[in-house]
Amino acid sequence: MIVCENLVKIFKAADLEVVALQGLDLKVENGELMGIIGNSGSGKSTLLNMLGGLDRPSAGKLFVAGSDLFRLTNAELVKYRLETVGFVWQNNARNLIPYLTAQQNVELPMLLRGKRKRERAKELLDLVGLSHRKNNRLSELSGGEQQRVAIAIALANEPKLLLADEPTGSVDTRTAAMILDLFQELNRSIGLTVVIVTHDLELARKVDRVVAIRDGKTSSEIVRRKGAADEQDGPLEGESEEGAHDECAVLDQAGRLQIPEEYLQAIGAERKLRIELEEDRIILFPPRR
Ligand SMILES: Nc1ncnc2c1ncn2[C@@H]1O[C@H](COP(=O)(O)OP(=O)(O)OP(=O)(O)O)[C@@H](O)[C@H]1O
């Protein structure tokens, strides 16, 4: 579904250049539900904007659902944004209209595209578990319900890829869990590929894979271990929650490896490591003093 190779994004403002993505590599399979985490300024939103066709990358390769994002003309990019991707933002509900009902809010963007699809709007509200609230005005819905209306709208054009930027950023923990459950449900029921940018570590339990971005590059991945994939109510018996996931460091195209700072600190290593190959493992030691 998504292939990023050596992706670079440089922002130029006056005589200042910011390299927001520094040769990022990422592959996402069709039907994957994955999370992207990283510190503030690490490049998460920049990556999401590239994937959504909202901005153009500076160099590298970027393919989404068969489209080469470097080659699309401006008109093709507009079509791509309308047909291939759906967006969910943190404060999505702010773009909804408080005095219209949930159903009217879902119908409105379809109307603007010249289609009146009352049935489709009902279907979409059903999909996000809100059919019982369809005739309520938006102002009568809770923050979580409003976010679900926004998700219904994001699904209106049957996107192949749903991009969510901090979708649980402005709701409480319980509502956040419900929204993540909804993404999981949509992923399973309609095979939607979902990429969620978040600070919320609880997400690691709900998604197949979490990719960490550091300084504009993918640095490590937390992958749900096989066998843990179907359990919904927590870790397998006798297994700690962390035990259901493996943390992997990522090798870039040139075979370079990023090692988390805290790991280096723990063994007292700074710029050099001793490396040894032992049967089926590679071992890193601090240099001999
Ligand atoms: N339009 C822009 N012009 C100049 N610099 C930008 C622009 N957008 C982002 N940047 C810079 O690019 C870097 C990555 O920003 P980005 O917003 O992608 O980070 P982020 O990981 O999403 O952060 P946050 O979690 O705070 O949203 C930052 O240094 C940011 O200041």
TrEMBL record:
One of its GO terms (cellular component) is membrane protein complex. SUPFAM superfamilies: P-loop containing nucleoside triphosphate hydrolases. Residues 230-241 have a biased composition (Acidic residues). The keyword Lyase does not apply. Residues 223-245 are annotated as: Disordered. InterPro entries: AAA+_ATPase, ABC_transporter-like_ATP-bd, ABC_transporter-like_CS, ABC_transpr_LolD-like, MacB-like_ATP-bd, P-loop_NTPase. Residues 2-240 form the ABC transporter domain. One of its GO terms (molecular function) is ATP hydrolysis activity. Gene3D superfamilies: P-loop containing nucleotide triphosphate hydrolases (3.40.50.300). Keywords: ATP-binding, Nucleotide-binding, Transport. It holds the Pfam family ABC_tran. It comes from the Bacteria. This is ABC transporter. It comes from Brevibacillus reuszeri.
